[in-house]
Design a protein that fits this description.
131 residues; Cytochrome Bc1 Complex, Chain D, domain 2
């Protein structure tokens, strides 16, 4: 295979992934959150731990750090910080990312869905206010 072709293909893939991240739609993420996530998680100024932990300020916080939530030993030992990439990997397959997690959700196979939910949640600071 031609080295120039490989470099061009790699650059095109990077541009496409960057464009996808820029095209994330927080409004679509809110709709999807309400359909798929809200049954277990809350977000916003009145959010509380529920079946799963509240997700205010989740992008950028350490895993297993929401106060007063009983995390699995696996999540506590994961050492993860929920940067956007790590969070989206977890959404793709929670049990694949953290074997032993209590989260029973199978995951979101579509990258655009993961991008949109991450964009929606990234709007909330740790107090639940929109940034």
């Amino acid at each position: 295979m031609n080295f120039k072709f490989v470099c061009m293909a790699a650059a095109a893939a990077w541009v496409a992934s960057a464009a996808g991240a820029l095209a994330a739609d927080a409004a679509a993420g809110e709709t999807l959150f309400n359909q798929k996530c809200k049954v277990c998680h809350q977000v916003g100024e009145t959010a509380k731990n529920f079946v799963g932990p509240e997700l205010n300020g989740v992008i950028g916080r350490k895993a297993a750090s929401a106060a007063d939530y009983a995390y699995s030993d696996a999540m506590k030992a994961s050492g993860l910080t929920w940067d956007e990439a790590t969070f989206k990997e977890f959404l793709a397959g929670p049990k694949a990312k953290v074997a032993g997690t209590k989260m029973i959700f199978a995951g979101l196979p579509k990258e655009t869905d993961r991008d949109n939910i991450a964009a929606y949640l990234a709007q909330f600071d740790a107090s639940g206010k929109k940034k």
